[in-house]
Amino acid sequence: MIMGDVGYITDNTPSRGDFRFTEVLEDARPYKMIGYVEGVCPDANNPYGYTPPYGWMITSCTWMPPGSHGVPVGQPAVLITCEPIKNNIPPLEPWEPIISILYPSPSDLVEDQPKLDLITALAMGGAGLALLGGYIWYNSRRR
């Protein structure tokens, strides 16, 4: 373990070269790394953008003029800020569905119930009232 500019750089901390920056703005490893890189910002429409080293994630990405900041002429350039993933648990991508086997959604638990039409409901209600009326009449006659 060696002391970096702002903290201890361990064997698990990626080297500057692992970030593939053409120009480094801030080397605050093991907490943050900021620099320019040849590539594009990754998003749902372009999942093949810049990929940070293992255990790190992109916290901001800004498009820059093509061919600037040490990037070859005509190639896309982006300003990237990377930070380590907390507890090395990668964040969920916004386009990935979240599925839980232990806790299924309530809609998965509800089975299709047959629908009662209005006439059936009224008939069942009327039959219930007739039974109640008969019970009351029968009990009133027993006295």
Sheet with the most strands: spatial strand order: 3-4-6-5
Helix coverage percent: 10-25%
Shape: rod-shaped
**Would you count the extended β strands for me?**
6
Give the ordered list of helices and strands.
Answer: EEEEEEHH
Secondary structure tally, helices: 2
- Fraction of residues in β-strands: 15-25%
Give the mean pLDDT.
Answer: 75
Q: Helix/strand/pairing class, anyone?
A: alpha+beta
Number of domains: 2
Largest sheet: 4 strands, antiparallel
Distance between the termini: 96 Å
Radius of gyration: 33 Å
* Poorly predicted sequence stretches spanning 5 or more consecutive residues: 95-100
Walk me through the structure:
Helices cover 20% and strands 24% of the residues. The protein has 143 residues and is of the alpha+beta class. The longest helix has 24 residues, at 118-141. It is rod-shaped, with a radius of gyration of 33 Å. The model is unreliable at 95-100 (pLDDT under 50).
